[in-house]
Amino acid sequence: MASHRRPKQPSRARVTVLTTAAAAAVALSAQAANAAPSEKPSKDAVKAKVDELYNQAEQATEKFNGAKEKQQKLQKEISTIQDNVARGQEELNQLRDSIGLAAAAQYRTGTIDSSLQLFLSSNPNDYLDKASTADQLSAQQVEALKKIQEKQRELAQERAEASDKLKDLASTRTELGNKKKDIQGKLAEAQKLLNSLTAAERASLAAADARASRSASARVDLGNTTAASARAQAAFDAAKTQIGKPYVYGATGTASYDCSGLTSWAYGQAGVSIPRTSQAQADAGTRIYSESQLQVGDLVLFYGDLHHVGLYAGNGMVLHAPHTGATVRYESIGDMPFQFGVRI
Fold first, then answer.
1. Other CB atoms within 10 A of residue 301 CB
2. Which residues have C-beta within 8 Å of that of residue 158, sequence separation ≥ 6?
3. Active-site entry in 4, 259, 307, 323
4. Segment 113-122 mean pLDDT
């Protein structure tokens, strides 16, 4: 016979737990329904971020250039000091040899004096301080010993200087490596963002860039081409021949350039040597704070830390090497935060 007992009712605690779980499930479902789907950054947002990364990379590039220039300078200075030390050691050896010959001659005649014996001992450096023996030397011997001591002091100073510069060089090389990693990291991040775009989006950005470049070139052709000087004109003319060459950090031509690499190369073609980095180029001539006073061939500095430089091209335009992914080209001066011009 079938049982007619009432089913066991769930406990109050169990009902509470089940009710709470059901409410949470409903809430989560509502959140999922209302949550915005993960959106891919727009083409313009990607371009803005990439431009920012390129700007940061260029900041690091000018610091990299400064460290590289310092490294080259230190290497030259160390080489010069080492050459001086080598020549000085040779002179010291000759002076010692001359004293040794005098001692040998006296020894052969049996007249070697105590002064030379002392000099030829293991610790002759303080010899001249011993007044009791100074009167035993001839004037020529005294002069020779003074020269030896002076040369020893010079060599000690030069060796200490070389040691300090070698430490500075090691530190500079470390800095150089760190800046290079910084640049490469920024560029890799920028490339990753660009790779996230579709082929059509990348083509659209490239087309817009090309249109802007053509428009800038047309504005230059319509502008005033009065140069600041014959050499400024020569530098500008040289830079124009490099239009289309790619930007590469640390490059000074002629296959590629960075911003200060282009300007230093251009002025070099005009027979004028200017510093390597944009910050140093800012002090290479007379500063011009009004855009209206700029003339063709003047250097134009941008950004508060002066990490970008180009050549004024007339009609509010600048000829420069912009950033990675771009080529030497004309661009409006207003596209970047103008600081001042420099007339070489």
1. 23
2. 81, 84, 85, 88
3. 259
4. 53
% of the chain with per-residue pLDDT over 90: 64
| Residue entry with tokens 């400064």 | 66
Q: Which two tokens stand for residue 278?
A: 């944009």
Distance CA 78, CA 213 (A): 46
Global pTM reads 0.73
**Which of 4, 307, 308, 323 is the catalytic position?**
308
CA–CA separation, 277 vs 48, rounded Å? 26
- String of b and e for 171-203 (b: at least 16 CB within 10 Å)? ebeebbeebbebbeebbeebeeebeebeeebee
Spatial contact of 170 and 70, defined as CB atoms under 8 Å apart: no
Distance CA 12, CA 24 (A): 19
First to last CA, the chain: 114
Contact by Cβ (8 Å): 282, 301: yes
CB atoms within 10 A of CB 157: 12
Catalytic residue flag (residue 307) = no
Identify whether the C-beta of residue 271 lies closer than 8 Å to the C-beta of residue 83. no
Q: Indicate which residue of 4, 307, 320, 323 is catalytic.
A: 320
Looking at per-residue pLDDT, the higher value among 156 and 269 belongs to: 269
Q: Fill in the DSSP letter of residue 296.
A: B
Tens digits of residue pLDDT in 67-116: 999 999 999 999 999 999 999 898 888 888 877 665 555 555 555 555 55
Is 120 in contact with 97 (CB distance < 8 Å)? no
Burial letters for 159-168: b for 16+ Cβ neighbours within 10 Å, e otherwise?
Answer: eeebeebeee
Q: What is the pLDDT of residue 119?
A: 53
Name the 3-class secondary structure at 85. helix
